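Batch job 17 of 40 flagged for manual review because the log was empty.
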Amino acid sequence: MANSITNNQLIGPIEQELISEILNDPSVIEEAVLKLEPHDFVDKHMAIIFNVITKLHAEAKTISEHTILNYISTHTEMQFDDYELQVKTLANKFVSTVDFQDHIDLIKNASIKRQLNDFANEIISTDMDITKFNELLFNFQNRMALITSAKRSNKIASIADIAQNYSKDLQRIMSHDEELTGTPSGFSLIDAKTNGFQRGDLIILAARPGIGKTALALNFLVNAAKDCKERTEKMPNNEIVLMFSLEMSSKELCNRMVSSWSMVELSSSKRSKLSKIDYQSVNSAIDAISELPIYIDDDSALTIMDIQSKIKQISLEHNIKLVVVDYLGLLKGPTIHSNNYNRQAEVAMFSRTLKQIARLNNIPILVLAQLNRNMEQRSKKADNAKPMLSDLRDSGAIEQDADIVTFLSKVIPDELEGEENNQKETATIQVEYNIAKNRKGPTGSVNLDFIRTISRFEEKRFAPLKGINEAKGYN
């Protein structure tokens, strides 16, 4: 049926046919109750009858002409003129041969159209106070998201169906011994614990300033992009990786990626003094990175709704394999100037929304976060103090919403523990990548070397290279 059939005159009879089908075929009740709600019906009498059907279904009672009439007769607020005649007529009405799913879709589409029309009229009539514009815009975005996500398509699945799909996934994984189930980080020891960044997961990477969380996130991003490129060359699948950078510009991020790839220091003081060979290495790195499917949004004023809408838009054309958000603490909400402003509640909303985005779009989202002052205080008492889940800044909800929580912290050898400013000026420092929470696998730590001058992480410790560096990729 054409989607254009959405006016009240045509939708009313379709609603009657759907109720008739439910009364005559109990097998369709589950689908209708899952995807429709009483307010989706334009005919008020059909809305009441469907409301009764949903209540009886929730109580696991038989749905029939008799049970519906009995329910309405004992609930005066649901009674309307000739309700007995209408229910009896629907029960004996000819059942259409049109697919039951078509009726559901038409009713739901018509309902969404009515909601959009009402919402549009509300926007037109709203006094757009410029002093509260951000809050109004945020509320409008939320309303729009709720309306457009109203179509529920996930069916309740039996354990038999779930187990069958699981068996297929297991067979696919076992037939590819070296294949990760998630997007690779490029670090074998990390992937051994996580099996890659899993679709639908929210991953938190938290550290104190200066430990290299942005650099490591960029390493992950480039490694994942390399894997996307290699897979696309074998079988075109339009895979990409995406980064939202609220702190650094895209130019700064590119500088770090080129430096890490070429292994040539590209700080502002070094760029004008490159040797001819280093310059060639840098150009080679630029060419290689340019071919990677990396997309960056460096809008520092991004809201959580911006991220949600942009991911949804991009996913229409691309298969997103990894999203990086740098970082959680810079996201702003609309109520920052409100008297009831609560940063912890706001961050809790951010983490919850990011988890929903990851799950709904079936993508892994890596979010960078800061540690609170508890870590700073413990570090003053013990130089080798390690981060804990309670150190996550602004909200305990982050720990609850995240599938994986990881920390970066400096590793201080026992013989040097307690020495003032230890490793402060060292080009390469040892850091611990600690998986403190992992819903789907083991926790544990991996030691990495962070070469700060080139924003590069390595799994094996090595002396900083001197002289000529050949451009090369990640591990």
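Reviewer: the log was empty due to a logging misconfiguration, but the result itself is present. The beta strands are 202-207, 239-245, 294-297, 319-326, 365-370, 404-410, 428-438, 444-451, 456-458. Unflagging and moving on to job 18.
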